[in-house]
Amino acid sequence: MEIIGAIVHQLTRNMTEDQIKSAGFDSYFVDHTAGVYPTAASGFPWSAASMQVKGDMIADLTEDLAAEQKARVTYDNILRLSDDPDVNDVIKFLRAREIVHFQRFGEGLRLAKEKMDQKNIYYINPSFDR
Fold first, then answer.
1. Whole-angstrom distance between the N-terminal and C-terminal Cα of the chain?
2. Rounded to 5°, angle at Cα 5 from 18 and 8
3. Across all residues in the chain, what is the average pLDDT?
4. Count of CA atoms in the C-beta half-sphere (13 A) of 60
5. Residue 54 contacts by C-beta under 8 Å, 6 or more apart in sequence?
6. DSSP class of residue 9?
7. Which tops the pLDDT comparison, 13 or 68?
8. 75: exposed, middle or buried (C-beta count within 10 Å: 0-12, 13-18, 19+)?
9. CA distances from 54 to 51, 102, 105 (A)
10. I need a labelling partner for 84 at 20 to 30 A (CA). Which of 28, 58, 74, 107 fits?
11. Which helix (DSSP H) or strand (DSSP E) does residue 87 occupy?
12. If DSSP codes are grouped into helix, strand and coil, which group holds residue 45?
């Protein structure tokens, strides 16, 4: 979030009033001036409530895998819309990190399942699946 926030700050810090209005940035500007306020593209503010955790290794690693893919898709979409090479370079770097994180979480999930199987602990509870 810090890197994306820094990009937004760099792109908006010297905007004129006309540029703010013509870019559709005016309602944001009224509330936050040019300060970085993390929101989704839809305008929904970031919240820790969007972070999921169950305390179950399989469920949590699967959620982590999904989060990495969702972030990658967001970066893909930014790259489709951006024509700024400096922004694109940073986004491509962040996108590559999401791919590596996805691979590492996948390895972690595989290892967790193998360890559970070695101890005859099922990663699906058979008593619930009768």
1. 44
2. 25
3. 86
4. 7
5. 60, 63
6. H
7. 68
8. buried
9. 10, 19, 16
10. 28
11. helix 85-118
12. strand
